[in-house]
């Protein structure tokens, strides 16, 4: 299934109904992460169909690597990179991040992003509609602890790590980041509606960075009519 990648000019993306498709979290994470002149080398862990690298490619000329463990997702990601003429900028790698860091430890990144599985195995019933959805939503292949433990081996000193996750796991995330010498620098809470509690949160930390946390203006995803808010819609295009 071929779709427009929101309102990003000339960007198209192949997706499959039986696989994890890009979501509002995908877009918000790609637009939340710090992109500046110092960011020359970017890694997206669990890149799926390469939606995050494609969005990032409209914001920066930095080289972007997408790592993905699922073979079916890799095929889509590679097809999407070719379709959008991004082969010079985006590289797709079929690997488990826990193995990738063993062979690429000399290749350090300025920015690492991840939209990880949110749910611990056992906390929720595994999605049975498609086996391909399970590792995208549940920690069957990559736990939060494994993810954060892998980062020091692939990120530069003072490099950025950006992720989106559930608010109810924020305490655990802070503890793991601190354990592995990250300083949380930015938080932005995501509320489904104006009068609802935050469900998810965007987090950015720096490796071996100085302390100093900024909580940014919350993101309200939907307006009172259930449509995407104007705040969110501005991130649906370059």
Automatic annotation (TrEMBL):
The keyword Cell cycle does not apply. GO terms for molecular function: N-methyltransferase activity; nucleic acid binding; S-adenosylmethionine-dependent methyltransferase activity. Residues 28-132 form the Methyltransferase small domain. One of its GO terms (biological process) is methylation. Keywords: Methyltransferase, Transferase. PANTHER family: TRNA1(VAL) (ADENINE(37)-N6)-METHYLTRANSFERASE. This is Methyltransferase. The lineage of its organism: Bacteria, Bacillati, Mycoplasmatota, Mollicutes, Entomoplasmatales. The gene is yabB.
């Amino acid at each position: 299934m071929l779709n427009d990648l929101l309102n990003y000019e000339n960007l198209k993306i192949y997706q499959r109904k039986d696989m994890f498709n890009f979501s509002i979290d995908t877009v918000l994470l790609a637009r939340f992460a710090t992109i500046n002149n110092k960011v020359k080398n970017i890694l997206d862990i669990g890149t799926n169909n390469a939606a995050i690298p494609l969005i990032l490619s409209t914001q920066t000329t930095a080289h972007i690597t997408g790592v993905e463990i699922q073979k079916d997702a890799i095929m889509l990601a590679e097809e999407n990179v070719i379709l959008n003429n991004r082969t010079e900028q985006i590289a797709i790698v079929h690997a488990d991040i826990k193995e990738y860091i063993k062979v690429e430890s000399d290749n350090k990144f300025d920015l690492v992003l991840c939209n990880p599985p949110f749910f611990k195995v056992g906390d929720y019933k595994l999605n049975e509609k498609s086996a391909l959805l399970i590792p995208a939503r549940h920690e069957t292949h990559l736990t939060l602890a494994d993810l954060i433990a892998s980062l020091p081996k692939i990120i530069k000193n003072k490099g950025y790590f950006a992720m989106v996750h559930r608010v109810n796991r924020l305490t655990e995330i802070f503890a793991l980041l601190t354990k592995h010498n990250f300083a949380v620098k930015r938080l932005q809470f995501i509320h489904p509606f104006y009068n609802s509690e935050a469900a998810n949160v965007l987090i950015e930390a720096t490796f071996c960075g100085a302390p100093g946390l900024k909580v940014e203006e919350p993101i309200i995803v939907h307006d009172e009519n259930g449509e995407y808010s104007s705040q969110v819609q501005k991130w649906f295009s370059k």
